[in-house]
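Checked the freezer inventory, then went back to the computational side. Two predictions to log before the end of the day. The first one is the construct we discussed on Monday; recording sequence and tokens without edits.
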Amino acid sequence: MKTHSRSRMGRSMWIFLMSIVLSHLTTDRVRADVPQAIPQSDRRTICREMESVLDAELNSWYPLCIDTACGGYYSDINSRWELEGRQEKMIVTQARHVWSAANAAMFYQRDNVLRTFSAHGVAFLRDKMWDRECGGFYDRVNREGEPVRENGQLIKRAYGNAFAIYGLAAYHGASGDTAALRLAQESFAWLERHSYDSLYGGYFQFMSREGTPWTEGYRGTPPKDQNSTIHLLESFTELYRVWPDARLRERLHSLLRIVRDTITTDKGYMALFFQRDWTPVSFRDASAAVRQKNYEFDHVSFGHDVEVAYLMLEASDVLGIRDDSATRRTAKRMVDHALRGDRKQRR
């Protein structure tokens, strides 16, 4: 059975994040306001186990996924850890490798190998995936870096550009490379010109190669969605850490409010797709057959809800919002709802 790198890479990143969190818990300086439910000795044991898993993951991926011939990272790796497939490259996968290797470099601080692996991906983003003629990042390219058309068109997405910003900002944080930061800033500016909705706020997901937004959506998919919005929140948070720009701060704060107060329901889960004015796309009053047919547009995504609880708290912290009880309450509601796993509460 073939396992695509996008799903495996996602697990690798979460393992890495958990390792960082757990390693912080092993320090002698424990915050007084954090409940200490796990004994210190157990936290150290868990941290060692997680670091061991992280070591195995990183050693499995790198340098196996490094495409030394064409640049970037291989995308198709089977369950036997063998290269297999066309090796088409997606902006999200490429940027996640950049981010993961950069953060791993900062976490380990042992040598420059992981930073070199991250720099390898930055070069592919810059030289192949960035559209030098029209700006913005291509969503997909072939192994050699030639843009791949979808339904005869070159499509750009806010989602993909968000991940590029995310990876580039992290690499700048790990290396101090100002060229990477400039490219992240240029991508942010491109989204501002082409994707930002000055009327209702937020960002349109789909754009033409030239940057014309499809304000009514694309091929039956609504123009705005939670997935692109939460990853814009995540990427702007990462960028603001290294570039505290006033306009970026304004947009980050706006995205935090949209995710917390508009996308997240009172029950503690996120609606998934929206019209331009943020009216949720809902099929809850339709027949069972219609609901099943449109499941991708209207269901509870528990994993995203837990992820977003963290992303909101992270954004609030980076913004320096003091006593952000509104964000904490919403984050707790989301995690509580996911832990209950109660789909019926949607009704």
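The second is the one RB wanted added to the comparison set:
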Amino acid sequence: MRSPMRAAVPLAVAVGLVAAGPAAADDTSSARAHAAGGEAAELTYPSIVQVRVNRAERALDRAANKIEAGQTLKAAAKLKVVRRQMAAAWRGAKYVIRTTPPPPPAEDARVRVRAHVSGGARAGATYAGPADTAFRVLTLQHDIASAMVGLIDGSHGTGLNAISKTLNLTNDRRDQAIAYIASVAPPAPPAEDARVRARVAGDAPVTAGFETVMPNVVPQIDDELQAIEGTKSDATDLTAGGRRLLNAAKAQITKTKGVVNTTWPPVPQED
């Protein structure tokens, strides 16, 4: 029960220092992302984040199956795992953000962009930097929130309580993550620099900056808002408590969308 947005993680390519990757990674530690206007690039995420994301996603699938089977107590136990692993994944992302050296000066960044465009980029794996790593956790939070919204219709008692706790915690943790990123992310670059970054395409060994990654949170939130409104309009077994939960979630994530739009405006289009 995951949102389709998990399968393809958006990559708005920006120039930055490639974060130190794990010593070894299998297929589960990387996700396919699309550079602006280019081919798909394979990102390898730090294991301190990806392992926890994997655990959360497995528990999320199992919880959904238990709820659909009417096994609410077992579902509640699985959702506890989801909450714990989601929190752990964000702690890992914060560590990556905190310990990764800053990117090179803007002039050096332009040289790297030109080198890539001219075919001089290094070959090999593309390791996710701080911004892409943080966005991976934000995407996990989106997946969890979307799954909880989809499970509210038909849920009662213990099952609805577990869903409510998970949805509220997820929305709160996302707000905290966004506030933390805003406190540590460097100022957005001038429009010219942003367009230079946006022109990089393909599988270049460069990673996105927060100013180009964070606007991708807005489509995720829009997807959640659509799911909430759709559930409220066509639900066949929505309790009063379930409707209150949906209304509260809508109010919170609408405010979250406003914060993201204000803090990280979309990258301007090239003339």
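For RB: The CA atoms of residues 58 and 234 lie 28 Å apart. The two ends are 41 Å apart (CA to CA). Let me know if you want it refolded.
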